[in-house]
């Protein structure tokens, strides 16, 4: 059994109730060295007291012991009926490293979560950046952290930082170009890690780092690598190796910072746009108010004009209907646009609605082919030469079916631009006059015949008298 314990790769020891080492295998050397003891020698007081407690009790206990670079989980077991305790060690260095790594990751994740809350809480971008560098330095256990903004000239301005001497943050510039860490980071487009600036040959340490005796650090790009906002740098005055997890954390923070900056800039632009828009709306509101007032006045004026026009239209309609003769007006295509009651009732015996929008050719029962041809001919002369030529037409009136004589007077009418847009006509019923003229002509013929007859009779009387006078004169001459 002792041979098996001796070959065990893990520490195996036995200690008596007096705290002395009774047995140890080769693997126990690290623990013995840690406790500064050996075979037959006493354990340190804290371990001795624990052994005494275990020997007297019935349960085991565990402790962690760091020996050099290794960590052991040491378990103390009582041996029933014996005045000693068995001690077994198990190396857990890898496990402890993993636990440490997990704790660091948890710390970093907590920091990222906190950073997100800070982004929501801070009213200004500068306040957020100031809190961010403090949180980064605390999380990575570093003395210095800074945020550099890339300027149009290619240099960088320190806009936020922690650990730096007064007068640097907000005022100090860092040169750009490949010969500075910030410029090299922009150029390489990947995180840049410096283990020891004294041995660095890719670029030179800028003045701000030399002034603060910076020994190591890392830097990452904030924003798009093609259009970066700037650089996030974390530094230490001690030589230090930065892990991949720490680089990932710094990159994650840079991403959050870039998002917050972009959002804040967008909010600022939106705020400015909103103010500008409000100003425009205000100006437009004033303009619209004025325009509305003018429009109201214009509407009132137009309503008055429309009312006057309605009155004028009604007056003209009344006037038109009061004219005892038929009146009509047509457009240039010969389509009736309106007429008075005399025309609609006497000539066509139709409602005005059945006349307007129709041409003369659609009322052939009232207008003969000869009337249509003569009307078309006279309309062309009127439109071409502007001459108003009254012409006589025979029209069959629909109201009584009688064929009556009309003397039609026509003229053109124009729009406001002076353009001729149609023909207006007035029809004078001359049927009775024509009858009177015929009767007068007949009377004149009778009168002429009577006069002719009387003249003829008088001439015969005169001729007879002259003949008689001549005979008398002849008789006197002979006598």
What does this structure look like?
By secondary structure, the chain is of the alpha+beta class. It folds into three domains: 2-91, PAS domain (Beta-Lactamase, 2-Layer Sandwich); 100-269, GAF domain (Beta-Lactamase); 324-434, Beta-Lactamase, CATH 3.30.450. The protein is built from eleven helices and 16 strands. A six-stranded antiparallel β-sheet has the order 8-7-6-11-10-9, sandwiched between helices. Strands 2-1-5-4-3 form a five-stranded antiparallel β-sheet, with helices on both faces. A five-stranded antiparallel β-sheet has the order 13-12-16-15-14, with helices on both faces. Strand 4 and strand 5 (84-91) form a beta hairpin. Helix 5 (125-140) packs antiparallel against helix 8. The radius of gyration is 63 Å and the shape is rod-shaped. The model has no long low-confidence stretch (mean pLDDT 88). Keywords: Coiled coil, Kinase, Transferase. Pfam families: GAF_3, HisKA_2, PAS_4. Residues 263-294 form a coiled coil. InterPro entries: GAF, GAF-like_dom_sf, PAS, PAS-assoc_C, PAS-like_dom_sf, PAS_4, Sig_transdc_His_kin_sub2_dim/P. GO terms for molecular function: kinase activity.
Radius of gyration: 63 Å
Distance between the termini: 226 Å
- Report the count of strand segments: 16
CATH topology of the largest domain: Beta-Lactamase
Could you name the ranges where pLDDT drops below 50 across 5 or more consecutive residues?
Answer: none
Structural class from helices and strands?
Answer: alpha+beta
What fraction strand?
15-25%
What is the top-level CATH class of the largest domain?
A: Alpha Beta
CATH superfamily of the largest domain: GAF domain
Mean pLDDT: 88
Label the CATH architecture of the largest domain: 2-Layer Sandwich
Number of domains: 3
Overall, the morphology is rod-shaped
Strand order of the largest sheet: 8-7-6-11-10-9
* Helix residue percentage: 40-55%
Order of helices and strands: HEEHHEEEHHEEEHEHEEHEEHHEEEH
InterPro entries: GAF, GAF-like_dom_sf, PAS, PAS-assoc_C, PAS-like_dom_sf, PAS_4, Sig_transdc_His_kin_sub2_dim/P
Protein name: Sensory transduction histidine kinase
Pfam families: GAF_3 (PF13492), HisKA_2 (PF07568), PAS_4 (PF08448)
Keywords: Coiled coil, Kinase, Transferase
């Amino acid at each position: 059994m002792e041979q098996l314990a001796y070959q065990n790769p893990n520490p195996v020891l036995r200690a008596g109730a007096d705290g002395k080492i009774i047995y140890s295998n080769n693997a126990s050397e690290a623990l013995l060295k840690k406790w500064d003891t050996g075979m037959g020698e006493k354990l340190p007081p804290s371990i001795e007291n624990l052994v005494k407690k275990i020997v007297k009790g019935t349960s085991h206990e565990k402790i962690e012991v760091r020996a050099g670079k290794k960590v052991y989980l040491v378990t103390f077991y009582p041996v029933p009926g014996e005045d000693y305790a068995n001690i077994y060690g198990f190396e857990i260095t890898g496990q402890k490293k993993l636990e440490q790594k997990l704790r660091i990751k948890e710390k970093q994740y907590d920091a990222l979560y906190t950073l997100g809350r800070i982004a929501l809480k801070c009213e200004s971008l500068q306040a957020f950046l100031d809190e961010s560098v403090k949180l980064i330095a605390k999380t990575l256990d570093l003395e210095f952290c800074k945020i550099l903004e890339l300027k149009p000239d290619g240099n960088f301005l320190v806009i936020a930082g922690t650990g730096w001497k007064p007068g640097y943050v907000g005022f100090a510039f860092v040169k750009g170009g490949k010969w500075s860490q910030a410029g090299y980071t922009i150029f390489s487009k990947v995180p840049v890690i410096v283990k020891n600036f004294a041995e660095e040959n890719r670029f030179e340490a800028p003045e701000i780092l030399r002034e603060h005796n910076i020994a190591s650090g890392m830097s990452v790009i904030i924003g798009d690598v093609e259009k970066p906002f700037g650089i996030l740098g974390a530094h230490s005055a001690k030589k230090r190796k930065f892990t991949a997890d720490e680089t990932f954390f710094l990159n994650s923070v840079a991403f959050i910072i870039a998002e917050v900056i972009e959002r804040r800039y967008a909010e600022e632009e939106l705020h400015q746009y909103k103010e500008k828009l409000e100003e425009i709306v205000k100006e437009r509101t004033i303009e619209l108010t004025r325009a509305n007032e003018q429009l109201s006045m214009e509407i009132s004026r137009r309503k008055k004009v429309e009312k006057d026009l309605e009155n004028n239209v009604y007056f003209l309609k009344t006037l038109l209907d009061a004219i005892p003769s038929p009146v009509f007006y047509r457009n240039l295509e010969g389509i009736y646009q309106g007429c008075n009651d005399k025309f609609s009732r006497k000539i066509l015996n139709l409602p005005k609605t059945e006349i307007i929008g129709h041409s003369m050719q659609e009322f052939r029962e009232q207008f003969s082919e000869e009337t249509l041809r003569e009307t078309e001919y006279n309309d062309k002369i009127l439109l071409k030469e502007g001459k108003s030529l009254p012409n006589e037409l025979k029209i069959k009136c629909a109201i009584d079916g009688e064929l009556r004589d009309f003397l039609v007077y026509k003229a053109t009418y124009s729009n406001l631009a002076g353009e001729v847009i149609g023909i207006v006509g007035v029809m004078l019923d001359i049927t009775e006059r024509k009858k009177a003229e015929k009767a007068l002509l007949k009377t004149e013929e009778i009168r002429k015949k009577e006069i002719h007859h009387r003249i003829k009779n008088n001439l015969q009387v005169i001729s007879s008298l002259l003949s008689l006078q001549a005979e008398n004169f002849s008789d006197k001459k002979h006598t």
